[in-house]
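Justification of computing resources. Each target in the renewal requires a structure prediction run like the one illustrated here; the chain below, 186 residues long, is used simply to show the kind of job we budget for.
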Amino acid sequence: MDIYEQIRSYKPFNEQEAQDREELLRWLKSGIDIWSRNCRAAHMTASAWIVSPDRTKVLMAYHRLYRSWSWLGGHADGDHDLLHVAEKEVCEESGLTEFRPVSKDIYSLEILTVDGHVKKGVYVPSHLHLNVTYLIEADPELPVRPKEDENKAVQWFERDAAVSASSEPWFREHIYSKLNQKLTLL
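Resulting structure tokens:
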């Protein structure tokens, strides 16, 4: 099933997901190339909410650009298999090589605003990340390491402490809290 059908059949958890789902579908139907960064207004991304097998811990990275503890993820950059994108980002950003998706199904949907910033000496204008999140499971005893050009630390947190560690209020209140809430329903 292609990503449009996956998102169309996804059952939203709350109003944020319901509204973002409709907007994601609109973007996907638009014919605009949102699969690459050539569309500077919005592009597809994938994230991973990485949890321990007992669901008590969450793996976060300290992101250099946002100066905050955050989930792992990144740009699709032409790859239409967003689970693959999320898994690739987990490897790159944490050094983990042993992990598994809890399900191949979408765990969460979000449209995220990204403020304009300078990356590698080049200004990147404000834009939207049209994001799909997957639930990934990994052993907290396995070694992790940062991806030095993107994050300066990778660390396991107790579930609630992972939310508190973020310095980004929107993510704390509307995204990370939601992701943890959904864990209690599994």
